[in-house]
Model the fold of this input.
Amino acid sequence: MTLKDKIEKHLLEIQKPSRYIGGEVGSVIKDKSKVDVRFAFCFPDTYDIGMSHLGMKILYSLTNERENYWCERCFAPGLDFEEIMRKNDIPLYALESLDPIKDFDFIGFTMQYELSYTNVLNMLDLAGIPIFSRDRTEELTQIVIAGGPCICNPEPLADFFDIIILGEGEEVNLEVMDLYNEMKKQGAKRIDFLRKAAQIGGVYVPQFYHYYYKEDGTIDHVEVSDGAPERIQKRIIKDMDKVYYPENFVVPFTEIVHDRVSVEVLRGCIRGCRFCQAGFIYRPFREKTPETICRQTRCLCENTGYDEVSLASLSTSDHSGIDPMLTQLLEYTAAEKINLSLPSLRVDNFSESLLEKIKKVRKSGLTFAAEGGTQRLRDVINKNVSEEEIMNTCRIAFEGGYSAVKLYFMMGLPTETDEDIVGIAELAQRIIDLFYSIENRPKGRGLQVSISCATFVPKPFTPFQFEPQDTPAMIEHKQKLLLDSVTSKKVKVSYHDPNVSLLEVVLAKGDRRLCKVIHTAWKRGCKFDSWSEHYKFNQWLEAFKDCGVDPGFYAHRRFSYDEILPWDHLDYMVSKDFFIRENKTAHQSKTTPNCRERCSGCGVNKCVGRDCF
Amino acid sequence: MSAAVMRLRAVFEKTGRAKYISHLDLNRFMLRTFRRSKLPVWYTEGFNPHPYYAFALALSLGFESSCEIMDFNLTEVMPLDKVRDALNAVMPEGMRVVSVAEQKLKVTAIANATYSFSLETEDPASLYNEIQALLSQEEILIEKKTKKGIKTVDIKPDMKVERCTLTDRSVDMELRLPAGTQTNYNPTLFFEALKLSGSHTFEPAKIRRTGIFCENNEIFS
Done:
């Protein structure tokens, strides 16, 4: 019986079987006898989530442009299918060929969030690939490689990956595959390849870096072996108009989370919000021209048949050509009956003319990320949004017919006091008052203000990387205070489980000693940690205990400016000095202007050899 | 808004990997297929215009078919084989339009459909005997889920065996069952009846809808 037959025998017993059999429009099938290098692009979550990820679409198409390379997709099976796979000896396979991924040259994972780490181990195990890098074959095959934002601190995963790619993959991925292809033909061993790969810019081979710790648990020093570089700098694409962008997407049969065309409009961010990792690790700020954006939108809509397109970026309204871009786009989308959605708009540059344009597209709720309840706290986090701007935008929106506002906040931010928490409720109340003071407000429906409150997770490569996280008890106190401070029924409050945020910070800021903890937690049944129904906090606590690792050491301790951080040897082009400077400025409740207003000397311009603006 | 000038009916195959597309997903799939094809397909009028298309019968998840029927309209006159080719050019593996023609009959004219399948088993000969025994019963009673609840029906009078052959690994059959707006019998009813009546274990495989017919057993078109 072929693997395909084995799979098909059970497909009707599980939920949404079309996720497991491939064959979608846009998927790339090649003749494997004519392919030199096979790459399994793995997303460590289910199909519905992974298929929504833009990076995978880019790298999938980019790799498949090479006739002799074949990139296929692979996702974490749902628990129902995993059980069947384990019972019936179905190894984890790729969706295009339905071949087991253990036979591939590369098994590549994209690490988008910390709570997907255990899924990587589970997928390797399902594939029949040794979980630890050191246990894999000496032959040149089965290279387990990873990239993505979480990888900026790869140490908690260092024991599992052979190669880690820092920064943007469009160029370096192919360089690594080219080297592999060449060395494979020469009959090289795995170790020879890893040594050579480590010489490519942006390539980090964790096994060549050896950590030594001090008595107090902090890092003493890192030793480098095998001729690998002391520091590894992330890779970036210089010209966003010339960089590869797919002309087609795989169009799933089943509904996925982001089921639409997604067009990247810019990379990086000018804002410098001090909590935001993406705002720093994706620097420098680079835009596509409106013409490129329109061309790519049109091409993707025509090839996929989607009738919805979304513009992807960290802050779309910061595009210097947003007005001509939207004018051109709307001309096309309106004629073709395509919905255009614009996530990631900022409050402060939300002009009336912009709102007018968006309204033509669709009237749904408005979402603002205010992040902090008081101006003082917003200054601390450098979220340069004033209350006046929030109120102004709400006024424009209400007058334009909106009657639902969603506000995002964080809880547990550095220097936060009870006053800041009460400030969240007060801000919501002032928005309600504003609504009812407007004469031409939307009639019929009442106002709905949703407050979504996440727990602050300090992240590497941000000015807050040194900060401790509030303990779950402190967060619970603040959550209760917020609920007590909200008096109106028009305000709906939701918040995160602080025990989930605790694990997030430990995995984000942890060092190599976390590898054992992750492995132990997985052995204890932890997987799909980002799914509240699957999250097993007690098992994680047991795993920490088993390994003699104190989560508080990573979560609740302030990292000092002069200690060696687990990610200090990785260079994301923004200097540690800058982060220290910004951290100090934060504690003085002072803001830093955005990059377009004034360069604050983060260091990225020196790395790329030109001014950003 | 352009008027619908061609009222068309496509007969299409749904085989291989495509049999795992659920009916709900097929709807979304067709929307995108029409958009990719760039055919001048007629859009519904109203607040949220979308291409109009309708499937004559739903097909169970996991069933193949060589005769699915979809109605749609065009706003321009076009040669029928051009329409078929435009759709096939943007269809994935397993989905293929066999023919496109003007709609002749109303969908309510559909009376029955035929299904072929293999009942795989260790001992096909004795399964064959059990099938014959079941078929010779006066009535074949089986519980059927309806919108109003569970109801016992006799599938015997409305069921016709078109073919029943013995192979070395299975019994291969073709059944004609009521289909359409009034009564719809799924071949799984027959599998259940067979499971209840005999002692044999078997696995239904390769289930495929092979034809959709009118009252007089003429092919619906």
